[in-house]
Amino acid sequence: MALFDWFLSPLSYPFMLRALQASLMVGVVCSVLGTYVILQGMAFFGDALSHAILPGVVLAFLAGWPLAVGALLFGVLAALGIGVLSEREEIREDTAIGIVFAGSFALGVALLSTTGSYATDLAHILFGNVLGVSSEEVWLIFGLGLLVLGVIAALYKEFLVLAFDPTLAVVLRLPRGLLRYLQLILIAVTIVVSLQTVGVALMLAMLVTPASAASLLTKRLPSMMLVSGLIGSFSNLTGLYLSFYFNIASGPAMVLVATGVFLVVFLYHSLRKRL
Question: How crowded is the C-beta side of 86, counted as CA atoms within 13 Å?
Answer without folding.
Answer: 19
